[in-house]
Amino acid sequence: MTAEEVVTAPRRQSRRGASFRDAGPPVALIVIFGIFAALSPQFRSIDNVQNIVDAAAVLAVVTCGITFVLMMGSIDLSAAGVMGASALTVSLLVANNRNDNDFGLLGILVAVLLGCAFGCLSGLALVLLKVPSFMATLGVSAIGLGVATLMFAGVQPNISDAMLESWAIERFLGFAYLTWIAAACILVGWLIQRYTRLGRYAYAIGGAEEVLTLSGVRVKPYKIAVFTLAGAFYGLGGVMVTSQLGAGLVQAGDGYDFSAITAAVVGGTLLTGGRGGILHSAVGVLLVMVLTNGLVQVGVSPYWQGGVEGLIVVAAVAAAVIPQRRRNQVVK
Amino acid sequence: MSAVPALEVRGLVKHYPGVKALDGVDLIVRQNEVLGLAGENGAGKSTLLKALVGLVAPDAGEIYVRGEPVKLRSVVDAADHGIGMVFQEQSLVPNLTAAENIVLGSEGAAVRRGIYRWDAMRRLAQEQLDKIGSHIDPLARTDTLTFAERQMVEIAKVLRIEERSQHPPVIILDEPTSVLESKEIETLFAQIRRLREFASVVFVSHRLDEVLDVCDRVTVLRSGQSVGEVATAGAVPRELHRMMIGSTGSDDHYHENAAAPVTAEQPRLSVRGLSGKSFHDIDLDVAAGEIVAIVGVHGSGREDVCRALFGAEPTTAGEIRMDGKKIDLPNTRAACAAGIGYVPAERKIEGMVGSMSVAENMTLTKQKARCTGPFVAPKKQATLVDSWIRRLSIRTPNRDTAIGRLSGGNQQKVVLARWLVGGDIRLLLLDHPTRGLDIGARSEVYRLMRELAASGVATVLLADSLEEAIGMADRILVMNDGRVATEVACPSGGKPSPLDLVKEMV
């Protein structure tokens, strides 16, 4: 008996790629889409499908950011505040009715960088002050809202920047520019996740942080970087909402924090970290959007929707943890 | 063979609160040699290994690498000096590829400016895997590999220190065989012999036959000291084992005088054909007042049997009777109600709530004992807890002190008292009740066990060492590979020798 014989003997399939578990959300997406399509002719119209995808754009960008944080096993509740601050920033920097600024693309860049700064703040609080990410990001969200409120100063800035306004209106190949921006974000996110040390370490931190430390990797800078990256996505999300509304609102990011976590988790990214990823989250976003839209199309009262969505999230998480359930397990 | 040893340890000392884990250990690892390290639980093996890879800072003593004195502050430090360890509980990131794990922390050309070059990474990993002749796909996700394959990945990872230190490495394998099948062990041994061509290996195992099989030389540790060195050629396990356990103390460490004679009538606990995931067809009888020890090596399934008897582990077949009455144990609550108590091995994690008071910990399970109706009755609780603090001579400032601030022995007494306050305890399951305790505290726990037995409690004991099992038990069940291999009577005055038991364990 030589070493080679034993080591090579059992060779199961799909060692590199997706496992059976990863297939769950895409299959669910197809099945649910199929059900709604069968039930409602309006739902399966081209127009409606475009609607669903366009409506998913902002959520997709925010979810991209949050996915990296979740992959690491941390949580990020700062999206709403960061988006508010970035929305006000961008609307006051591009052509608007409050001042004479007209910085165009530069203004957008500043808004995104502001998002980075907020994310960095969350990361620093986590790593240096050892504040759990839940509280750190909740605090940063409040700071973001505070900054946004200061900038809002009681008068709503309406934007008149042609480019920014066109993002929500102009279409390319049937989809709004915003949708293409979201697609680009997903692509960039996927490249980061797959081809950069930052992305891979974020994944590894969620898998087994101690092992990284034992292998001589300094984990802290990567944690800060991941939160900073997430902040950039939220910043862009705030810009996108401003484009849709044509005005900068403090509440631009309202509800996106929890919707993004929902989408990521439904897509198969675990809150405990180490599993899932950008593509999972993209599927999750579509799943959530198809559900919301489909329920309306088949005539479910909008009053029911919040509750139904909540049920689906709990069911999705329960399904995800079934393989790991055991007796006397502690769940907090 | 060069005269300078690859690694040498002189007079290494490490204190932990209440325990001297290392008490002047000497160790020499020659170049291109496989050195075995043997010793019972608590002999200081794991502390020594941790000191060698920089995870534990010794209080005194020197470590020399190729004749040079070194201070090892971290795993990375140790790696720079060419020392690497394959950990017992594997240290791979499960959701990364094998290749990433192999190069983790020193990616070199595989990552440039933070961007992955998957091709370069695969090549680098393949180089390491080729060294050990392994054909694992470097891009396979680590959690899809078998345990044996993951071990190969770990060895490949450790071998990367060769490039780092520019010297022949010293590879430490901590209990690498404990969960392997015999065929996989063969492969591993072939691997170790291959490693010897260009490296030195330190091999640690509970199984003495393996140590003798694969090592050139064995150093035996006992109570934190090196007590001997054996060339394996011609040596037998018996010899090694004698060195490991040393001469047993002549004093009555186990309070054998206090051992009450068991008046056998109907057994208190009677188990027939109990089977679960890692144990099969277990028969076990324990009479009131009897202490039955279950012994076996790591992976023999004895811990799982113990947990199953407390309803904490699912069973697939078999029957459990208490005092002749058939009982079901679907959960731990049912076990408590049946008068079964369990003292878990991980005291700090499973045994107690560290931040809560002695009183709270003591009344955690038997709430009724301290309550009037649904309400906690402070006076009732105080009287009850104080009486047990006195009876077990628990040294605590008062009943409201957080249990985490007591010494290990006193903590364990509180954990035991938890089962006694209800007054309805019939069977105690003790999983390593003296783990991490010093000699004095051990002795007190032993005395307490004797008293409980004398009062008619039946006890199942998973002892920390063979010596302890033999000292305490009236009867010993030897488990091997999930089954009861044999049962040995163990009366006071007619104790079996550890060697008789070891024969059945391996």
From TrEMBL, chain A:
Q: Which residues cross the membrane?
A: 20-40, 52-70, 77-97, 103-129, 136-155, 175-192, 224-243, 255-271, 278-296, 302-322
Keyword Transmembrane listed: yes
- Matches recorded under InterPro entries: ABC_transp_permease
Transmembrane helix: is it a keyword of this entry? yes
Q: How does it sit in the membrane?
A: Multi-pass membrane protein
Keyword set for this entry? Cell membrane, Membrane, Transmembrane, Transmembrane helix
**What molecular functions are annotated in GO for this chain?**
transmembrane transporter activity
Task: Report the Pfam families cross-referenced here.
Answer: BPD_transp_2 (PF02653)
Q: What is its main location?
A: membrane
**Annotated localization:** Cell membrane
Pull one GO CC term from this UniProt entry: plasma membrane
- This protein is called ABC transporter permease
Q: What is the lineage of its organism?
A: Bacteria, Bacillati, Actinomycetota, Actinomycetes, Micromonosporales
TrEMBL record, chain B:
The molecular function terms in GO held by this entry are: ATP binding; ATP hydrolysis activity
Alphabetized SMART domains for the sequence: AAA (SM00382)
Taking every annotated instance into account, which residue ranges of this chain make up the domain ABC transporter?
Answer: 7-248, 264-506
**Does this UniProt record's set of keywords contain Thylakoid?**
no
Among Pfam families, the record links this protein to: ABC_tran (PF00005)
Q: Which UniProt keywords apply?
A: ATP-binding, Nucleotide-binding, Repeat, Transport
Q: Which InterPro entries match?
A: AAA+_ATPase, ABC_carbohydrate_import_ATPase, ABC_transporter-like_ATP-bd, ABC_transporter-like_CS, P-loop_NTPase
Key word Zinc present: no
PANTHER family, per the entry: CARBOHYDRATE TRANSPORT ATP-BINDING PROTEIN MG119-RELATED, GALACTOFURANOSE TRANSPORTER ATP-BINDING PROTEIN YTFR
Q: Can you name this protein?
A: Sugar ABC transporter ATP-binding protein
| Protein source organism | Actinoplanes aureus
